[in-house]
């Protein structure tokens, strides 16, 4: 495979978990959060407040970090989340609208991310 794979979800997008265990059973399905980081190589995203795991940390030699249990977010696969539509506040797919804009006698193509559900720009 040449280059890194494309992902329709970007950093700072508001996403909703669409698969997994329901909130009643201690899962994250239905929860919304902001994307902190995107990992195209593994097709995963890091979402704020979603997929929180307990990490056991060892006390550092320099004494900078104290040891113990630490709760952090773990990456979740991109297929398990969907971008939230800004108008309806529900999950939606993302499409790209290509426009040609004329500036200073030159034509330029501009790509805009659009929510499929409402047609609003993301």
Automatic annotation (TrEMBL):
InterPro entries: Rib_uL2_dom2, Ribosomal_uL24, Ribosomal_uL24_C, Ribosomal_uL24_KOW, Translation_prot_SH3-like_sf. One of its GO terms (biological process) is translation. The gene is rplX. GO terms for cellular component: ribonucleoprotein complex; ribosome. Keywords: Ribonucleoprotein, Ribosomal protein, RNA-binding, rRNA-binding. Part of the 50S ribosomal subunit. PANTHER family: MITOCHONDRIAL RIBOSOMAL PROTEIN L24. GO terms for molecular function: rRNA binding; structural constituent of ribosome. Belongs to the universal ribosomal protein uL24 family. This is Large ribosomal subunit protein uL24. One of two assembly initiator proteins, it binds directly to the 5'-end of the 23S rRNA, where it nucleates assembly of the 50S subunit. Residues 50-121 form the Large ribosomal subunit protein uL24 C-terminal domain. The keyword RNA-binding applies. The keyword Ribonucleoprotein applies. HAMAP family: Ribosomal_uL24_B.
